[in-house]
Write a structure and sequence with these properties.
heterodimer; A: alpha/beta; 5-stranded parallel sheet; 44% helix; B: 342 residues; alpha+beta; 12 strands; elongated
Chain lengths: 116, 342
């Protein structure tokens, strides 16, 4: 399974990658900006997107909306700005930063039906 | 009670004129035809008008005609007719060659005995600089809020990075002892990170201890308890909210005591272990308690060399002006952090 990790802090992206590996993901694309995220998704369609909201530059929500307008892909927001997600994409799975690995695993299991 | 004696009309007119002309506030006295009968010196100074040129002119002709604003006109007519009073009407005074002024106007019909002759007082306050200052202040507050949000975001991100690195190191090291230390360090950082999260929810004012401790214990149990059958973590916390300094100390104390109980109290127990974190306050006094039903800790003189955790707890308790007591709860251990009424 392939995951797209939209996150502008590389160390946090690494931590997310670690957790997703534990959930059975085997290949990864990383994007630090909204533009990179859209390009990466066009290159290789992911089975899951994890997205931060504040990027350098751009907005993770906008990137996700743009990617998902073409085909629906499961999205997990991992962000320190949960308010914006709740307003713009209400009801979407969301893990607030700071997270521990289990928060992400739980969210993936609960919302996306993937197994460890 | 004496009935007031009506004054002669000339006296009334003279009095009205004298009052208006001597006023420190920008005032105009108008008749029922909206002609200027009198103006205060401050009106002439504020709006750069020569007192000699405005007497007996219609308001619309004063200066270069800048006062001939249709809306003001109809409001004044309504005032003259007694149908309305102008109270804090705002308009822009536009003059050629000068910066536009924001004015707050009020007009009232003078109430006196001669009902034939209508007199209206028009007061004009220039609020341009006040509004400008207000706007600057609003902008400043907004900028500060944005900065604060940015700062919150950065702090949360930085703590997240530290916690993530510690967790990844813990996964990669070979030595079990080092792994345990890294897990402890991760829990300590997460304890502060959780507080940061609570603070951003409450906009930095105060921290509700119940959700904070619940979050904290959830994170600790997620990273340190592998089997919920073996050990559960429970929080019983009242409605107390504290400021951020106190909360961060309390959160770290809870973290240390819970880590300690997980590591030492259940080494040979395979089921039914329980750690309870409780907090209750009454006025200034409070009691923070971490109790377990495990194998018990050495109490009294048998206590060995204190570890880092114990040192942290004692230092933070001291900071909170609280005492630490370790009791044999039989079964298990109960650690109380107690702050008495000062």
């Amino acid at each position: 399974m392939h995951a797209l990790i939209i996150e502008d802090e590389s160390l946090i992206a690494m931590a997310i990658e670690d957790v997703l590996r534990g959930c059975g993901f085997t290949s990864f694309d990383f994007a630090v900006s909204a533009e990179e995220a859209v390009k990466a998704a066009e290159r290789k369609c992911p089975d899951l997107i994890t997205a931060d909201v504040e990027l350098r530059p751009g907005c993770g929500i906008t990137a996700v909306q743009s990617i998902c307008s073409k085909q629906p892909i499961p999205v997990l927001f991992i962000t320190g700005s949960p308010g914006e997600v709740m307003v713009r994409m209400p009801g979407h799975p969301l893990v607030e930063k700071p997270f521990s690995t289990d928060h992400i695993m739980e969210a993936i299991e609960a919302h996306l039906g993937h197994q460890k | 009670m004496n009935e007031p004696v009506p004054l002669p009309n000339e006296t009334v007119n003279g009095l009205a004129m004298a009052l208006v002309e001597s006023s420190k506030a920008p005032l105009l006295l108008l008749d029922d035809d909206m002609a200027v009968i009198g103006a205060s010196t401050s009106f002439c100074n504020t709006f750069n008008l020569d007192p000699a040129t405005i007497a007996n002119r219609k308001l619309g002709d004063v200066g270069a005609g800048e006062w001939g604003v249709p809306q003001l006109n109809s409001l004044l007519l309504a005032t003259i007719a007694g149908a309305a009073e102008i109270d804090a009407y705002e308009m822009d005074l536009v003059r050629e060659g000068k910066a536009t002024c924001r004015l707050v106007l009020s007009a009232h019909k003078l109430d006196y005995f001669d009902t034939e002759k209508v007199r209206v007082v028009l007061a004009a306050t220039d609020v341009t600089s006040m509004r400008k200052a207000q706007k600057q202040k609003d902008n400043l507050i907004r900028d500060k809020q944005i900065l604060l949000q940015e700062l919150q975001h950065r702090v949360a991100n930085s703590l997240q990075i530290i916690a993530s690195v510690l967790m990844q190191s813990a996964k990669r090291v070979q030595s079990e002892e080092t792994r345990v230390h890294l897990h402890d360090a991760h829990s300590r950082v997460m304890s502060i990170a959780m507080l940061q999260k609570q603070l951003s929810v409450t906009q930095l004012q105060s921290v509700e201890l119940r959700p904070y401790f619940a979050d904290l214990c959830r994170t600790i149990s997620a990273s340190m308890i592998d089997d919920p059958q073996r050990l559960t973590l429970e929080t019983i916390v009242d409605e107390t909210s504290t400021n951020s300094d106190v909360s961060v100390s309390m959160g770290l104390i809870v973290t240390e005591l819970v880590i300690n109980a997980i590591k030492h109290a259940f080494t040979d127990q395979s089921v039914g272990g329980k750690i309870t974190v409780s907090f209750a306050a009454a006025e200034e006094a409070w009691l923070l308690c971490v109790a377990d039903n495990g194998s018990g800790m050495p109490v009294g003189e048998d206590v060995g060399k204190p570890g880092l955790g114990t040192g942290i707890v004692e230092a933070l308790a001291k900071q909170l002006e609280a005492s630490v007591s370790v009791q044999d709860a039989d079964p298990g251990t109960r650690v109380e952090i107690r702050h008495d009424q000062s």
